[in-house]
Amino acid sequence: MAAKKKSAFPKSMPALARAQRVTERASRFGFDWPTAEPVWGKIQEELGELKTAASSGDKSRVKEEMGDLLFSLVNLSRFFDLEAEEALSQSVDRFLKRFRHIETTIRERGKSLTEASLEEMDLLWEEAKRMERK
User: Fold this and answer.
1) How far apart are CA 24 and CA 20, in angstroms?
2) Is 15 exposed, middle or buried (0-12, 13-18, 19+ CB in 10 A)?
3) Distance separating alpha carbons of residues 36 and 73, to the nearest angstrom
4) Which pLDDT score, from 0 to 100, does residue 7 have?
5) In the chain, which residues have pLDDT < 50?
6) How many whole angstroms separate alpha carbon 89 and alpha carbon 27?
7) Lowest CB count within 10 Å: 37, 44, 83, 97, which one?
8) Reduced to 3 DSSP states, what percent helix, strand and coil does the chain have, rounded to the nearest 5?
9) Are 101 and 131 in contact (CB under 8 A)?
């Protein structure tokens, strides 16, 4: 019995990192966009396909198109020499920090999040962003 070949792209690898490694490898073999510009077009195309799928109500199509859009975004990150996994991780951290600001401030005002309006939360979100820039 032949030994099973180990994949360079194991499914256990985080999906964003896996996608980035796949596009890097394809690029090494010449299967790549010449510049980032056409990738922007591909992202617009995939976003349009996602919108169409979303209006169809077909969840499996939406999932497929969402994956295609995410894959295209990962590919774009490569053109900026960014690790998509790291970029998303940092975005999640920023979101959590900003949301904690909303939670804390609402609580300090003697309210719960369910009692706060979306407008109030949006203002606090913008406040948190301004605080980050200082």
Assistant:
1) 6
2) middle
3) 11
4) 79
5) none
6) 24
7) 37
8) 75, 0, 25
9) yes
